Amino acid sequence: MSISTALAAKIVWLLGIVAWYVIRYPFERRAKRVRVVTDRRSLLDRVGLVSAVLGMAVLPAIYVFTGFPDTADYPARWWAVVLGAAIVVAGLWTFRRSHKELGRNWSITLEIRDEHRLISSGPYALVRHPMYTSFFLIALGQLFLLPNWFAGPIGLVGFAVLFFVRVAKEERMMLETFGPQYTTYMGRTKRLIPYIY
Protein backbone atom coordinates (compact mmCIF):
# COMPACT_ATOMS: atom_id res chain seq x y z
CA MET A 1 0.00 0.00 0.00
CA SER A 2 1.45 3.34 -0.98
CA ILE A 3 0.97 6.45 1.11
CA SER A 4 -0.39 9.54 -0.61
CA THR A 5 1.76 12.65 -0.76
CA ALA A 6 -0.86 14.70 1.10
CA LEU A 7 -1.05 12.12 3.91
CA ALA A 8 2.75 11.94 4.16
CA ALA A 9 2.85 15.74 4.47
CA LYS A 10 0.27 15.71 7.26
CA ILE A 11 2.16 12.99 9.13
CA VAL A 12 5.41 14.94 8.87
CA TRP A 13 3.67 18.09 10.15
CA LEU A 14 2.16 16.17 13.07
CA LEU A 15 5.51 14.59 13.97
CA GLY A 16 7.03 18.08 13.96
CA ILE A 17 4.43 19.36 16.43
CA VAL A 18 4.96 16.34 18.71
CA ALA A 19 8.74 16.83 18.55
CA TRP A 20 8.29 20.53 19.38
CA TYR A 21 6.38 19.63 22.55
CA VAL A 22 8.83 16.89 23.54
CA ILE A 23 11.71 19.38 23.23
CA ARG A 24 9.96 22.13 25.21
CA TYR A 25 8.42 20.12 28.06
CA PRO A 26 11.52 19.48 30.23
CA PHE A 27 12.65 23.11 29.94
CA GLU A 28 9.19 24.32 30.90
CA ARG A 29 9.24 22.11 34.02
CA ARG A 30 12.71 23.30 35.04
CA ALA A 31 11.84 26.96 34.46
CA LYS A 32 9.07 26.79 37.06
CA ARG A 33 11.71 26.19 39.76
CA VAL A 34 13.66 29.40 39.04
CA ARG A 35 12.45 32.61 40.69
CA VAL A 36 11.21 35.39 38.39
CA VAL A 37 12.56 38.85 39.28
CA THR A 38 11.05 40.89 36.42
CA ASP A 39 7.75 40.08 34.72
CA ARG A 40 6.60 42.06 31.66
CA ARG A 41 3.66 39.88 30.68
CA SER A 42 0.76 41.83 29.23
CA LEU A 43 -2.49 41.30 27.37
CA LEU A 44 -0.68 42.06 24.11
CA ASP A 45 1.92 39.42 24.97
CA ARG A 46 -0.86 36.87 25.47
CA VAL A 47 -2.43 37.90 22.14
CA GLY A 48 0.89 37.14 20.43
CA LEU A 49 1.20 33.74 22.10
CA VAL A 50 -2.41 32.81 21.28
CA SER A 51 -1.90 33.89 17.65
CA ALA A 52 1.17 31.67 17.34
CA VAL A 53 -0.58 28.67 18.92
CA LEU A 54 -3.64 29.13 16.70
CA GLY A 55 -1.62 29.57 13.50
CA MET A 56 1.05 26.95 14.13
CA ALA A 57 -0.91 24.26 15.99
CA VAL A 58 -4.69 24.56 16.45
CA LEU A 59 -5.90 25.64 12.99
CA PRO A 60 -3.50 23.40 11.04
CA ALA A 61 -4.43 20.48 13.35
CA ILE A 62 -8.10 21.03 12.46
CA TYR A 63 -7.10 20.81 8.81
CA VAL A 64 -4.88 17.73 9.33
CA PHE A 65 -7.57 15.81 11.23
CA THR A 66 -10.73 16.96 9.44
CA GLY A 67 -9.62 18.27 6.04
CA PHE A 68 -11.41 21.57 6.70
CA PRO A 69 -11.34 23.79 4.67
CA ASP A 70 -10.90 21.31 1.81
CA THR A 71 -12.10 23.92 -0.71
CA ALA A 72 -8.70 25.60 -0.24
CA ASP A 73 -6.70 22.44 -1.06
CA TYR A 74 -4.23 22.22 -3.91
CA PRO A 75 -2.24 19.18 -5.12
CA ALA A 76 0.51 18.03 -2.73
CA ARG A 77 3.96 17.60 -4.26
CA TRP A 78 6.73 15.28 -3.01
CA TRP A 79 9.37 17.97 -3.45
CA ALA A 80 7.33 20.28 -1.18
CA VAL A 81 7.05 17.55 1.47
CA VAL A 82 10.81 16.94 1.40
CA LEU A 83 11.59 20.67 1.50
CA GLY A 84 9.00 21.29 4.25
CA ALA A 85 10.37 18.40 6.32
CA ALA A 86 13.94 19.69 5.99
CA ILE A 87 12.87 23.21 7.05
CA VAL A 88 10.92 21.86 10.05
CA VAL A 89 13.92 19.74 11.11
CA ALA A 90 16.14 22.85 10.91
CA GLY A 91 13.56 24.72 13.00
CA LEU A 92 13.42 21.96 15.61
CA TRP A 93 17.22 21.81 15.80
CA THR A 94 17.35 25.59 16.34
CA PHE A 95 14.53 25.33 18.88
CA ARG A 96 16.38 22.71 20.93
CA ARG A 97 19.73 24.51 20.72
CA SER A 98 18.09 27.76 21.83
CA HIS A 99 16.58 26.07 24.87
CA LYS A 100 19.88 24.36 25.73
CA GLU A 101 21.83 27.61 25.52
CA LEU A 102 19.29 29.54 27.61
CA GLY A 103 19.06 26.84 30.28
CA ARG A 104 17.61 28.31 33.49
CA ASN A 105 17.10 31.71 31.78
CA TRP A 106 14.35 30.37 29.51
CA SER A 107 10.80 31.65 29.89
CA ILE A 108 7.70 31.38 27.74
CA THR A 109 6.86 35.03 28.46
CA LEU A 110 8.77 38.26 28.97
CA GLU A 111 10.55 37.52 32.24
CA ILE A 112 13.97 37.98 33.80
CA ARG A 113 14.89 35.16 36.16
CA ASP A 114 17.05 35.03 39.28
CA GLU A 115 20.75 35.27 38.31
CA HIS A 116 19.77 35.85 34.68
CA ARG A 117 22.72 36.27 32.35
CA LEU A 118 23.08 37.37 28.75
CA ILE A 119 23.53 34.37 26.45
CA SER A 120 25.60 35.00 23.31
CA SER A 121 26.79 31.50 22.40
CA GLY A 122 25.40 28.79 20.13
CA PRO A 123 22.62 30.17 17.91
CA TYR A 124 22.67 33.35 20.03
CA ALA A 125 26.06 34.15 18.50
CA LEU A 126 24.28 34.69 15.15
CA VAL A 127 20.87 36.10 16.06
CA ARG A 128 19.40 37.71 19.15
CA HIS A 129 16.17 35.71 18.97
CA PRO A 130 16.87 32.18 17.70
CA MET A 131 13.73 30.89 19.42
CA TYR A 132 11.74 33.13 17.06
CA THR A 133 13.95 31.95 14.21
CA SER A 134 12.92 28.39 15.04
CA PHE A 135 9.24 29.38 15.02
CA PHE A 136 9.73 31.10 11.67
CA LEU A 137 11.36 27.96 10.22
CA ILE A 138 8.64 25.67 11.56
CA ALA A 139 5.93 27.97 10.19
CA LEU A 140 7.73 28.11 6.82
CA GLY A 141 7.95 24.31 6.82
CA GLN A 142 4.20 24.20 7.49
CA LEU A 143 3.64 26.31 4.38
CA PHE A 144 5.30 23.61 2.27
CA LEU A 145 3.85 20.63 4.16
CA LEU A 146 0.16 21.49 4.22
CA PRO A 147 -1.21 21.82 0.67
CA ASN A 148 -4.01 24.17 1.62
CA TRP A 149 -4.22 27.91 0.95
CA PHE A 150 -5.43 28.48 4.52
CA ALA A 151 -3.72 25.87 6.73
CA GLY A 152 -0.31 26.22 5.04
CA PRO A 153 0.35 29.96 5.42
CA ILE A 154 -1.60 30.55 8.66
CA GLY A 155 1.49 29.52 10.65
CA LEU A 156 3.47 32.42 9.19
CA VAL A 157 0.65 34.80 10.12
CA GLY A 158 0.59 33.50 13.71
CA PHE A 159 4.37 33.74 13.93
CA ALA A 160 4.39 37.30 12.55
CA VAL A 161 1.85 38.48 15.13
CA LEU A 162 3.90 36.95 17.97
CA PHE A 163 7.19 38.31 16.66
CA PHE A 164 6.10 41.87 15.97
CA VAL A 165 4.07 42.13 19.19
CA ARG A 166 6.91 40.92 21.42
CA VAL A 167 10.36 41.47 19.98
CA ALA A 168 10.65 45.22 20.63
CA LYS A 169 9.38 44.81 24.21
CA GLU A 170 11.78 41.93 24.75
CA GLU A 171 14.73 43.97 23.51
CA ARG A 172 13.77 46.93 25.73
CA MET A 173 13.66 44.60 28.73
CA MET A 174 17.08 43.19 27.86
CA LEU A 175 18.53 46.70 27.43
CA GLU A 176 17.17 47.69 30.84
CA THR A 177 18.65 44.54 32.39
CA PHE A 178 22.04 44.34 30.67
CA GLY A 179 22.62 47.91 29.46
CA PRO A 180 25.80 48.47 27.38
CA GLN A 181 26.49 44.72 27.29
CA TYR A 182 23.24 44.20 25.36
CA THR A 183 23.86 47.25 23.18
CA THR A 184 27.21 45.74 22.12
CA TYR A 185 25.52 42.38 21.53
CA MET A 186 22.87 44.07 19.35
CA GLY A 187 25.64 45.67 17.30
CA ARG A 188 27.13 42.33 16.30
CA THR A 189 23.97 40.24 15.75
CA LYS A 190 20.79 40.36 13.72
CA ARG A 191 17.31 39.89 15.18
CA LEU A 192 16.02 36.84 13.31
CA ILE A 193 17.98 35.79 10.22
CA PRO A 194 21.78 35.63 10.40
CA TYR A 195 23.53 38.44 8.46
CA ILE A 196 20.18 39.67 7.01
CA TYR A 197 17.62 40.84 9.58
From TrEMBL:
Keywords: Membrane, Transmembrane, Transmembrane helix
Name of protein: Isoprenylcysteine carboxylmethyltransferase family protein
Gene3D superfamilies, alphabetized: 1.20.120.1630
Cellular location(s): Membrane
Ranges annotated as spanning the membrane: 6-23, 43-66, 78-95, 126-144, 150-168
InterPro entries named among the record's database cross-references: ICMT_MeTrfase (IPR007269), Isoprenylcys_mtase (IPR054851)
Species for this entry: Pseudaminobacter soli
Membrane topology reported for the UniProt record: Multi-pass membrane protein
Predominant location category: membrane
Gene Ontology cellular component terms for the protein in this record: membrane
Keyword field contains Membrane: yes
Molecular function GO terms recorded: protein C-terminal S-isoprenylcysteine carboxyl O-methyltransferase activity
Keyword Transmembrane assigned: yes
Pfam families hit by this protein: ICMT
Top-rank taxon, per record: Bacteria
